[in-house]
TrEMBL record:
CDD domains: ttLC_FACS_AlkK_like. It comes from the Bacteria. GO terms for molecular function: ligase activity. Gene3D superfamilies: 3.30.300.30, N-terminal domain of ligase-like. Residues 451-525 form the AMP-binding enzyme C-terminal domain. The lineage of its organism: Bacteria, Pseudomonadati, Pseudomonadota, Alphaproteobacteria, Rhodospirillales. This is 3-methylmercaptopropionyl-CoA ligase. InterPro entries: AMP-bd_C, AMP-bd_C_sf, AMP-binding_CS, AMP-dep_synth/lig_dom, ANL_N_sf. Belongs to the ATP-dependent AMP-binding enzyme family. Residues 23-401 form the AMP-dependent synthetase/ligase domain. NCBIfam families: PRK06018.1, PRK06187.1, PRK07008.1.
Length: 547
């Protein structure tokens, strides 16, 4: 028997139109690309999104067309998200930190009909123009006064486009499984692949992400998504905030410690989210002058890469800010697990609590998870066995755009995340490594992430990476690559002595090298493929000694 409830579609436009009624005066604050702080309300945002929706139709774009963005987190980018998806077009957030040839590849692969560009990225688009022949319109996201002299043909001024359009627009109704937005994986190996979200997947994901044990956003919160809108939907904050009525604070292009600190304090931010590199910059900034406090911030969500233990501890013990460690991926919209403590855990001694918080967290409702061995057999949830992390759920990709990569699900519909992990009896998942980064030593696996985390616990270490180096006896042995903090002198022996006792003896790196900087991916993660390339001829002293 079919239920008798109203079968109303879940549509992205409803997030913003809801906010425009029930939280109409709540602010959206932006550090603009032009410089000044801009502020307006959800009601203003929704009205301008309607104007933009009309303007897009005026440009000849139609339902289902793909519209690209090369843009930071700003109110204009938010208007584009809603103006595009809200009327059934597909909003394609392009990561501007990708290599230029990858950007051209994905704009063509996605068949972008128009691209909205922040001032910062105008030179990039100018360079790519010969490869973007299929893009019909380029819109520069600024006002007339700031329009640059550009070789982009018929470049449109965003403010003129929006303000010149009527706000007489009704958000249309259509099937909730219609595509809403598109985000490419960063493609550290091979070409980037497109993950095509739907209105339904986005709505379900955002509702669960707003939950108390997840991002926990409510109408009294002010949220600062430092994580860019082009990085896995800014972890759904620009969708969940209007649903909950939270104030949004957009950082624009400035993600340095001083700029983020200023916004946190002047805008009364209570929750914020970003990758560890951003928090490293903020904490270093706070360290410079012992007197600074975080007076309103309550919760920081850290994900994208493993949050180091020392970072979680510093936020909590020095600044009274609770850390929620999160894990996910573009293919998962992106949230899979969040590390909110369960009942009773908050009373544990600090060290035991940190042991739990260093794990990547528990699956949120709707995300099914299991770990398997190489033959697909499920492994126990005992916190010890580690295997391939497999996931299934209504906001997890079932296929890549245009069938790239072929069938990506196993016979039960699970997607292989490419991560290796443990699951403990309380449900907490811990990433051991990316399957391709794990170091295989004498038939056993060494977690490069654990070693890196232990190394950055040293006060003189700014950043660390561990890769496997060929070893004739053990197959691979770990090499630790360290960036010292400015003015610090730490050497190999001191580093190894520091690690002793913190890691299994046989995990001890065979060598330590010091470099000025480490390569990163377009989403701020260590670029291990580049490191492996750079160190492919490296000979470990343990081999040299044996020769
Ligand atoms: P990109 O590679 O473009 O940054 P994703 O954001 O989708 O794309 O990357 C997802 C991957 O990032 C995960 O599969 C996992 O390896 C890693 N990751 C995400 N969050 C964490 C975390 N909290 N700890 C460790 N690794 C993480």
């Amino acid at each position: 028997m079919r239920g008798l409830m109203q079968e109303r579609p879940l549509l992205i436009s409803s997030f913003l139109s809801f906010a425009a009624i029930y939280h109409k005066d709540r602010e959206i604050v932006t550090r603009t690309i032009e410089g000044p702080i801009h502020r307006y309300t959800y009601a203003d945002c929704e009205r301008r999104a309607r104007k933009l929706a009309n303007a897009l139709k005026g440009l000849g774009l139609q339902f289902g067309d793909v519209v690209g963005t090369l843009a930071w987190n700003t109110y204009r980018h938010l208007e584009i998200w809603y103006g595009v998806s809200g009327q059934g077009m597909v909003c394609h957030t392009i990561n501007p930190r990708l290599f230029p040839n990858q950007i051209a590849y994905i704009a063509n692969h996605a068949e972008d009909k128009a691209i909205f560009v922040d001032l910062t990225f105008v030179p990039l688009v100018e360079k790519l123009l010969p490869h973007l022949g299929n893009v019909k319109h380029f819109v520069i996201m600024t006002d007339r006064a700031h329009m640059p002299a550009t070789s982009i043909p018929d470049a449109i001024c965003y403010e003129e486009l929006v303000e010149g359009a009527s706000d007489d627009f009704t958000w249309p109704e259509f099937d909730e499984n219609t595509a809403s937005s598109l985000c490419y994986t960063s493609g550290t190996t091979g070409n980037p692949k497109g993950v095509l979200y739907s209105h339904r997947s986005t709505a379900l994901h955002s509702m669960v992400a707003n939950g108390k044990d997840a991002l926990g956003m409510g109408s009294t919160d002010a949220v600062l998504p430092v994580v860019p809108m082009f990085h896995a939907n800014a972890w759904s904050i620009p969708y969940g905030a209007p649903m909950s009525g939270a104030k949004i604070v957009m950082p624009g292009a400035a993600m340095d410690g001083a700029s983020i600190y200023e916004l946190l304090e002047t805008e009364g931010v209570t929750m914020t989210a970003a990758v560890p590199t951003v928090w490293l910059m903020l904490l270093q900034y706070l360290e410079k002058d012992g007197g600074r406090t975080l007076s309103t911030l309550k919760r920081v969500v850290i994900g994208g890469s493993a949050a180091p233990r020392s970072m979680i501890e510093t936020f909590e013990t020095r600044f009274g800010v609770s850390v929620c460690h999160a894990w996910g991926m573009t293919e998962m919209s992106p949230l899979g697990t969040l590390g909110s403590l369960k009942a009773g855990m908050e009373k544990l001694p600090l060290e035991e609590r940190l042991d739990i918080q260093c794990k990547q967290g528990r699956a949120v409702f709707c995300v099914e998870m299991k770990i398997t061995d190489d033959d697909g057999n499920e492994l126990p949830r005992d916190g010890k066995a580690f295997g391939h992390l497999m996931v299934r759920g209504p906001w997890i990709a079932g296929a890549y755009l245009k069938g790239d990569g072929g069938n990506i699900l196993d016979q039960d519909g699970f997607f292989d995340t490419g991560d290796v992990a443990t699951l403990d009896p309380e449900g907490f998942m811990q990433i051991t490594d990316r399957a391709k980064d794990v170091i295989k030593s004498g038939g056993e696996w060494i977690s490069s992430i654990d070693l890196e985390n232990a190394a950055v616990g040293h006060p003189d270490v700014a950043e660390a990476a561990v890769i496997g180096i060929f070893h004739p006896k053990w197959d691979e042995r770990p090499l630790l690559i360290v960036v010292r903090k400015a003015g610090k002198e730490i050497g190999k022996e001191e580093m190894l002595t520091f690690l002793a006792g913190k890691i299994a003896k046989w995990w001890m790196p065979d060598d330590v090298v010091f470099v000025d900087e480490l390569p990163h991916t377009a989403t701020g993660k260590l670029l291990k493929t580049k490191l492996r390339e750079d160190f492919k001829d490296y000979k470990l002293p343990t081999i040299v000694a044996a020769e």
